[in-house]
Amino acid sequence: MFTLRSFAVALLICFAASITFSAITKAEDEAQMKKDIKTMTGDFICVLPMDKDGNVKAVIASGDCSGYAPHVHVFREAGTANVFSIEATPEKLHELEISPNKKGVTLAGRVAGSTRGWILYVE
Prior knowledge:
Layout: H1 4-35, E1 37-49, E2 56-59, E3 72-77, E4 83-87, H2 90-98, E5 105-114, E6 117-122
Parallel strand pairs: 4-6
Antiparallel strand pairs: 1-2, 1-3, 1-5, 3-4, 5-6
């Protein structure tokens, strides 16, 4: 016979199982994310606006680029034709902007995208 007590026990068992499964899944996700980190060397490139018509110029700055007009950055992997849009926290992006070295930079992060474009999520 189905009672309120047996229902409560069944509910408690299901709840405990879901918490355990959630903890296992989170640990597996974190392990996978660490495995997906790719380290690559290349050039940190500033894409600077040039005029009102929307023309841009790609340059490898010789120093701090945070003083230029607001602009985006890409990363060209050395020895390949691979170019990645860079995504990072504001703090990490600022750290990259003020770095005096923009050539031969080593970055680590997760790569996502498709044949239309690649993104490097810098750690």
